[in-house]
Amino acid sequence: MVKQTIQIFARVKPTSRKQPQGIYSVDEDEKSVAALEIILPRDLAEGFVNNKRESYKFKFQRIFDQESKQEDIFDIIAKPVAESVLSGYNGTIFAYGQTGSGKTFTITGGAERYSDRGIIPRTLSYIFEQLQKDSRKMYTTHISYLEIYNECGYDLLDPRHEASSLEDLPKVTILEDPDQNIHLKNLSLQQATTEEEALNLLFLGDTNRMIAETPMNQASTRSHCIFTVHISSKEPGSAIVRHAKLHLVDLAGSERVAKTGVGGQLLTEAKYINLSLHYLEQVIIALAEKHRSHIPYRNSMMTNVLRDSLGGNCMTTMIATLSLEKRNIDESISTCRFAQRVALIKNEAVLNEEIDPRLTIIRLKKEIQELKDELAIVTGEQRTEELTQVELDKLEEQIRSFLEDQDPESRLEVGSDMRKIHHCFHYLKKLLSERKIPEKSEPSPEIKDQDGEVPLKEEEFKKLRDILKQRDNEISILSEIPGKRGKEQIKYQ
Ligand SMILES: Nc1ncnc2c1ncn2[C@@H]1O[C@H](COP(=O)(O)OP(=O)(O)OP(=O)(O)O)[C@@H](O)[C@H]1O
């Protein structure tokens, strides 16, 4: 088991306009962590969150400033997570930040240059490279791509996506088993045997992804997307299979509704996004609190799906994307605050191992066959599953002649074949049930007298009474004739 708090990183998006001096500073000198200081411009400070403060300082594992390359992001953030997924642990990387701060650029990448490839294509490339190198194990890789839009789940890899409108597509729903494991109904798992196949699935999903335009961002994604790589591994000959999932999550923009200046459908979307991010925040607050027993995962689809990634069996990393321009200062501070809370959450990642039932059946079948072969050598006859009809008839004939035999010493010899022994009992039971079994006569209970002695039977009693009577007579005769008494006495001596 690996116990670890959620790792938090910050990435600052390059600004197109000339950046006013002193909006933020990065302090990398601190030993294990880096600090990002956001300095409030004088004209903004008044009426802001806390107008007495002039700056806000936030700690991160590392801060990627405007010049950082996609390659650095992969090497430092994603590669260690991909490595632990290859060893059998669950992993999650999620990007959180306001619209246009670079979440999609970081997770998926930009389409213009090859070097702009983001975490997903680079991770796929790395994973397949490692799988090819490792000949000790057999691996299977599947991809799923889930979009959560207005609290409903959609399968981005559903081939009907292009032909149907979103409402006509089957919704992905959450099922919970008795062990509280989450299963997603209607979310397909597509096998990918090569990097190319996996990349094609990513492109297919991205094409299907919901895109809407807002005044703030010309191509802003209004949904949460979870790209998942499922890896199973097994050593040849072993029945133990390891399963690990890697969630790469691009959340919808975290900005507050009021600022985006949208209405109608987009306002509805924004409310849903805000609500689900609010629930995400609630889960994170609950997890960060000590001794809190109830975590409100069930409030939204996203927190349900990411249940393991937040406070569960997973190694999780968050990337706070920041667009540190003057107009975005408040959103940037709120993103950093969110990250500080996330950093308090402890996860416990365990190796996800299970015994493959199919392989166990194959192994047991092989073992049974070997035992049958051994038995056939010892008994000289090939053992089949059931006794044949000829064998059954012969056995029943044997039982009947045993029952008819009057010799008390006679025996029923069927050998050590358990199938024959069982059949004997069944057959005897059948015979007994067909015949009327006489009811047993109850023996008369022995009645004890007051002294606890068992009374004599009537015949014995009669005999003894007669003897007693005879003795009485003799005594009375002897006592009547005194001379005769002495004579008798002499006679007995
Ligand atoms: N680090 C970066 N380097 C160069 N361009 C970037 C960087 N980050 C973002 N961009 C560009 O900024 C624009 C907005 O970025 P992106 O679409 O990734 O934002 P987002 O946070 O995903 O927004 P949304 O919430 O709408 O999904 C894109 O054109 C993207 O190419």
Task: Briefly characterize the structure.
The chain has 493 residues and is an alpha+beta fold. It has two domains: 354 residues, Kinesin motor domain (Kinesin); 38 residues, no CATH class.
Explain what you see.
- This protein is an alpha+beta fold and 493 residues long.
- It has 2 domains: 2-355, Kinesin (3-Layer(aba) Sandwich); 358-395, no CATH class.
- The protein is 39% helix and 20% strand.
- It has helices spanning 42-45, 70-86, 103-107, 119-133, 195-208, 257-260, 264-288, 301-305, 329-342, 357-379, 389-404, 418-434, 458-480, 482-492, and strands spanning 2-5, 7-12, 24-27, 34-39, 55-60, 62-64, 91-96, 138-149, 152-155, 173-176, 182-185, 190-191, 224-234, 240-250, 315-322, 346-349, 353-355.
- Strands 2, 6, 7, 8, 9, 12, 13, 14, 15 and 17 form a 10-stranded mixed sheet that branches. A 3-stranded antiparallel sheet has the order 3-4-5, with helices on one face. A two-stranded antiparallel ribbon has the order 1-16.
- A hairpin with a 5-residue loop joins strand 10 (173-176) and strand 11 (182-185).
- Helix 2 packs across helix 4, helix 4 (119-133) runs antiparallel to helix 5 (195-208) and helix 11 (389-404) crosses helix 12 (418-434).
- It is elongated.
